[in-house]
Amino acid sequence: MDLETERQPRSINEIVAIIEALIFVADEPVSAKLLAEVLDEDRETIEAAVEQLQNEYQHRESGLTLREIAGGWQISTRAEFHTEVRKFLKTRPNAKLSLAALETLAVIAYKQPVTVPEILEIRGVQSASAIKTLLDKRLITAKGRKETVGRPMQYGTSKEFLLQFGLKDLSELPSIEDFEDLAGSI
Amino acid sequence: MEQIEQFSFDFQTEIPHIIRESRDEIRLQMGEFAGPLDLLLYLIKQEQANIFDIPIARITDEYLKYIRLIKSLDTSLAADFLVMAATLIEIKSKMLLPREISEAPDEEIEDPRRELVDRLLEYETYKNASQMLWTRSTVEQAIFTRGKIESDENNTEVNSNVFDLLKIFQKILAKHKEDVILKIEREEMSLAEMLKKLKAMFREREQLHLLELLREMSTRQEIILAFIAVLELVRMGNVTLLQQSIFGDVVLTKSK
């Protein structure tokens, strides 16, 4: 940053406060890297500060919570208060994805990058319109072509997917083995 | 997560109410299926059958019964359901055949259901994963972030960028193009008009060469009409036909 004068080293509380302000004004989750750049502090300091802020919200049982999502930090309301928040905002939950779209999304999330024929093989049904829905909702993106016969397009999940499903990153998805173990039981 | 319990749903019973119809799905009386494997899995569970030992004859009959219920399906979707029906029937018939005693007794006899079971298990794995996604998105919908700072972006009425506009514009253009194509009407001639035209020609001259006559016609339809008109003239005895060599041109001569 273009601070010309020598600045006093900030206290950790000050850093926590600035981080809170930045995350508050941001439209999107803010990465620790970006926070470090803006504050001109090292990553360790930022991470410690973020953790402290998160604890503060928890300790005073705030209506807000600081959470890590899609590779960044975000302040959001706690899910418990959804009824009141919805009543206040006068909104209703968005239309849900169809069964077919959800299934297709699950296959893409776990097998990415994956092609349309590969999805067909698992689902046993054409998935063209489900894929179109997912593309329209920006939950998936094209990830180049597969170097095989016909060079089919490959798909993978997007950042929007992480946001809408409340995921830090893809590694936060439960492992597919957990679902394999469930399969086959009555 | 402790929150999930609060928002947990019975996936099997809740789904039919919240999902809209789409080309990918079928909606039957008792619910909705995202494909043939989904239907099959449902039937196996209904029968409380062991997936590793599917009572194939009974399940096949059940499956076919439901297939008959499906009305006005998207053709490609119907095809996928029918492929599964064929697979089931094939397995059923294989199971009915007496098994040959293997020459090498150690060799495992392949169960005809084996491949289907593998597919069902793989499918169910992803179906379970999709339930997890569904739960996650439900929880996520209960969480709100601060609204965007006053700008065009948070005004839902103009919450789009130049590319969105361009996309819509292109869509409209494309649609318009199709409309125009549909509106073009070909100038069509009737047989009566063609007959009139030929008669007018014969008023001026005694003879006409068929090949020449047909060559003058500009469209396929006119050629056909002209040919029919010639036949009509011959039938009515207005002209006679003369062919001077085999496969040669035909000369039409006005009858006296």
Give a nutshell description of this structure.
The complex is a heterodimer of chains A (about 190) and B (about 260). Chain A is α+β, with helices and mostly antiparallel strands.
CATH T-level fold name of the largest domain in chain A: Arc Repressor Mutant, subunit A
Report the end-to-end length of chain A measured between terminal Cα atoms.
61 Å
* Radius of gyration over C-alpha positions of chain A, nearest whole angstrom: 21 Å
**Rg result of chain B:** 35 Å
Strand element count of chain A: 5
Uncertain parts of chain A: none
CATH superfamily of the largest domain in chain A, by name, is: Winged helix-like DNA-binding domain superfamily/Winged helix DNA-binding domain
State the shape of chain A: globular
Separate helix tally of chain A: 9
**Biggest interface pair, residues each?**
A-B, 50 and 57 residues
* SSE order of chain A: HHHEEHHEHHEEHH
Which percent range fits the helix content of chain B?
55-70%
Give an overview in words.
- The complex is a heterodimer of chains A (186) and B (256).
- With 186 residues, chain A is α+β, with helices and mostly antiparallel strands.
- Chain A has two domains: 12-89, Arc Repressor Mutant, subunit A (Orthogonal Bundle), CATH 1.10.10.10; 99-182, Winged helix-like DNA-binding domain superfamily/Winged helix DNA-binding domain (Arc Repressor Mutant, subunit A, Orthogonal Bundle).
- Chain A contains nine helices and five strands.
- Chain A has helices at 12-25, 32-39, 43-59, 82-89, 99-111, 116-123, 128-136, 159-164, 176-182, and strands spanning 64-69, 72-77, 114-115, 140-145, 153-157.
- In chain A, the strands form two sheets. Chain A has a three-stranded antiparallel beta sheet with strand order 3-5-4. A two-stranded antiparallel ribbon of chain A has the order 1-2.
- In chain A, a hairpin with a 2-residue loop joins strand 1 and strand 2 (72-77).
- Chain B is mainly α.
- Chain B is built from ten helices and five strands.
- Chain B has a three-stranded antiparallel beta sheet with strand order 3-5-4.
